[in-house]
């Protein structure tokens, strides 16, 4: 498998690749992952570095990609030595190592499309070049209907729908973080704090509206970003009620989900699934999310979590207050979430991915081979 984004910084695609790899390994498959990473970065044994990533603005975010002669050389070496039965590239339209791998390989190739966007200048400009690579992909997967729509409208072709997965057991049980809830007054957030589309400014504004009337209300924030910058957006009198953890380990992430009464996903756009929702649901957290289409889908149109008007801090504040004041409703949503998330467990999702592998390899001979100038090397 190829991950286009750096392994050094947590993200939805990176987590998807990691968890799928580990689910396949647990089922007895041999898996190798190629991803951008610093050469001295601590990597799992199944990950090979494609070289240090470079930050590039992409899809309303900053993507850390690797694309150049060094990465191309590592891609070819990895393909040549791996002798893989199938090459699975995540986000093959992203200008990173995945695209290099598709260009360099011949044989069964699967592509998984994660992104959702209305338009992309990068994709529009590079479409003719991308098409020559994407035509080599023999099996296409979309992680959501939104991602499938993006593929159909902006790239062409279609895909089988296989959702993001979550290792439900990893989040089901965990001790709360010291000094935190759930105690009836904790709202939580997990995501990149400095990325506007993740919606933290909306949540901070909502917290500022709610906190004066609720002396016990606290906010727990986790994820990459500048803690001082986050606190600077909160009135001084309220700052001691905001806990900013920064980037957390997988264990502490699970504990954070169990430390809140309401987990909030205030994302504004650009989400095709919402892996944090699935993780929070697996932990049995009461979820409050913006009503973007991807989140509505994961939450069953509000059955497994509450929704508020996207980008509207006042709407978020009203819904959060209603949840905090209704412990029975929170308990019901928690129960619904634990049931709903089972369909996304990797034990189910990985089997569906393997069926795609079996389909693309059924008529192929010789597995994945390196290709240069039309010749197999």
TrEMBL record:
The keyword Calcium does not apply. Residues 10-168 form the Glycosyltransferase subfamily 4-like N-terminal domain. Keywords: Glycosyltransferase, Transferase. GO terms for biological process: carbohydrate derivative biosynthetic process. The keyword Transferase applies. InterPro entries: Glyco_trans_4-like_N, Glycosyltransferase_grp1. GO terms for molecular function: hexosyltransferase activity. It comes from the Bacteria. PANTHER family: SULFOQUINOVOSYL TRANSFERASE SQD2 (PTHR45947:SF3). This is GDP-mannose-dependent alpha-(1-2)-phosphatidylinositol mannosyltransferase. It comes from Sphaerisporangium melleum.
